[in-house]
């Protein structure tokens, strides 16, 4: 039940998310719930030791051998290019690397595609350490 | 919005790690005192655990044996002796208030081949590796921000 509520929470949050990076966020959350890609997912939360308040959340999704998904992520990142506060893009043969930053709270997104390996990375900093 | 919907939205925020301390306390209190729907019983247990400061494991309830006067006397004497030792050993004679501490990585998890791992002791190294990578990426992002500030 807890898992179901968590999945529902992610779905609702994906729909409700109206911040600038919403396309990437929505895609990331969709794939966080899916096992069909055989992805590796890491979600790291750092809390204030004394208050328990979340300081930082880092999500890393790794996908192997899924060109369609890689294309979806590339399109999602490109679609958000104009909304990012800072944007850096590098394309070299099979390598395509994007780093995008939004502020308030500070959110850093990175897309790293290298042949069949795609890594999507999200870092949200709620409080500077 | 009725109360259940409101609580549901707070739970969503909590799972996303976006709740404030006040909202988290509100959740702990509501789940501890309200008539929680059956399907939320797991959440009730989870929030009770958070409210208790995320103890490593629950201590089993043990029946308390009745104390004899003789035993009470020995406990009182031992307590007084411990207190005296603490007072003598503390350089300034002041005792620090006990601070409750949280596990800084609580809420972290890993999914590999469809299997979720959330035992912090087991995944701690992976979590620290990810934070180390995150720090490098943040440094690069900060350089980008500084460059953009300078050039635009």
Task: List descriptors.
heterodimer; A: six-stranded antiparallel sheet; B: about 150 residues; mainly alpha; two-stranded antiparallel ribbon; 2 strands
Overview of the structural elements:
The complex is a heterodimer of chains A (129) and B (152). Chain A is α+β, with helices and mostly antiparallel strands and 129 residues long. Chain A is 31% helix and 40% strand. Chain A contains three helices and six strands; from the N terminus they run ααββαββββ. Chain A has a six-stranded antiparallel sheet, covered by helices on one side. In chain A, strand 1 (40-47) and strand 2 form a beta hairpin. In chain A, helix 1 runs antiparallel to helix 2 and helix 2 packs antiparallel against helix 3 (67-79). With 152 residues, chain B is mainly alpha-helical. Chain B folds into two domains: 1-87, no CATH class; 110-151. Chain B contains five helices and two strands; from the N terminus they run H-H-H-H-E-E-H. Chain B has helices at residues 3-16, 21-33, 41-51, 69-89, 120-151, and strands spanning 109-112, 115-117. In chain B, strand 1 and strand 2 form a beta hairpin. In chain B, helix 1 crosses helix 2 (21-33). Chain B starts with a helix and ends with a helix. The A-B interface holds A 1-2, 5-6, 9-10, 12-13, 32, 35, 38-54, 56-58, 60, 85-86, 88, 99, 101, 108, 110, 121, 123-126 and B 11-12, 15-18, 20-21, 24, 39-43, 46, 50, 54, 99-114, 126-127, 130-131, 133-134, 137-138, 140-141, 144-145, 148.
